[in-house]
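By way of example, what follows is a protein record of this kind.
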Amino acid sequence: MAKKTVFACEACGHETLKWMGKCPKCGGWDTIKEFRIEKDAPLSHESPVFVSDEDLPEERIILGIGEMDRVLGGGITCGSSVLLGGDPGIGKTTLCFEIASRMVELGFDVLYVSGEESLRQLSSRKKRLHLKGSFPILATNHLEDILKAVSDRHYKLVVIDSIQSTYTSRLPMLPGSVNQIKDVSSRLIMEMKRSETAHIFIGHVTKEGAIAGPKILEHMVDTVLYFEGDKMLPYRMLRAMKNRYGPVDEVGIFQMRQEGLVSVENPSEFFVSERGDIGSGSTLFPYVTGSRPIVLEVQAITPKTAFSMPKRLSLGYDMSRLFILIAVMEKVLGKPFFDKDVYVNVTGGMKVTEPAIDLAVAGSILSSYKDVNIGKDTALFGEIGLTGEIRKIVNMEARLKECERLGIKKVLCPRGVEKVKGLETVPLKTIRDLYEHIIEKHDT
C-alpha cells in the first residue's frame, strides 16, 4: 500500500500541489487541508473483446409497480445504477422499501443498506407498510462493510440509504464531503456492475433542489430520478432526469396512503377530479409526458393592479414565455394589460416546458380578462408565435384521444388536425380567433 499526500479543499474538493490560504475554485479561506491517501495496487488490465447484440442481451425485471416501471423504461435493468433524490420526508425510503419487497416476491435476493436509521426504526417502518417480501437489512455506513456483504453473497438489488452518509476509512475527510462521495460511489458502482447487481443510491438534495455532492455523481450513474411533491398533499411525482435505458421525460404519479405509496393508474382523472364549473380563468390542457398524455388544468387571474408596475407570476409555466405571451396579446388583440396583474398556475405541481401549453395559458388569461367561463368540457393546445399565429405541435392525435376518453366535448387546436369521432375540434389560425371564440361564448 503506497501513501500519497494531497492538498484538497474541504468545501469543493479541489486538489492542489501545495497548501494555499484561499481555494482558487470556490474562494473559501482556510479550507485547503493536507491529506494522506493510501493507494491500492493497480488492477489487472482488461483486454478488448468483440461484442454482438446476441452476446449481452438487456435483461429487465418488471416490478409490477406501474408508475415505477414506466419511469424506468419498462422495469429495472440488471446491473443498472439508479440515483434517487428528493426532499426529506418525501417518501424515498418508503418507495425503496416497496421496490425491495416486490423484488423479493419475484424470487430475487435484495440487500438494504441503511446508514441513517437504526434497525428498530426500519423494522417499525416495514411493519407499518405491511410488506409481503422480507429482505435483510445492513445498518452501517462503512464502505468496507458494504463491499464485504456484496462479495459474500450475490444480490440482484442493493439499496444504499444514503450515498452521502457512506464513507471509507481510506480517506480522512468527513462523510458527505466531495472526495468521500466520489470515491465511495465509484467503488460501489464498479464492484456491483462487475457482478451485474442493480443498485439504487438514495441521495440528499440541497436547498436549491439539486442532489448534494459533486455533479460527477449524476454522470456516473445510469438513471437519475427525482421524487417531488408537497408533503402536505397526498400525491408524489417521480421524474426521470437521466435514463440510459429509457425515456427521460416520463413522470410517475403516486398517492401517499397509510399503507404506503400507491401508483395512480389514471393521472388525468386524478388531476381534474375536483374540477367543476368554477368560473372564469380555467382551461384544460392535454400534456404529453413520455409515452402518455395527461390532462392538466391551467388557471389564471388578472386582477387590477394598485401599483405602477404590474406583477407577473407563473407556477409550472415558464416565466419568460408568459412575458412574451402577454406582449403578443397586447399587440395582436390591442387589449391593455399594463393595469392588470397576471398570475398563472398549472395545478397539481406539474412543470410544463413544452410550447404546446401556450394556447391554454392564453385562453385562461383571456377567460379571466373577459370574465368568461370557457367550460369544463373544453380543452386547448397549440403553440403561439410572436405574430399571434397558432402553430402545430407534436402528438396531436394522442392528445385528442385522451380528451375523448375523459369525455371532453370540444378542443380548440391548430389547423390540420385529424378529427376524432365524438369530439368537436375547432381549428384556430391566430390568437384573434381564440379571442373571438371567447367573445361569442360570452355574448351567447
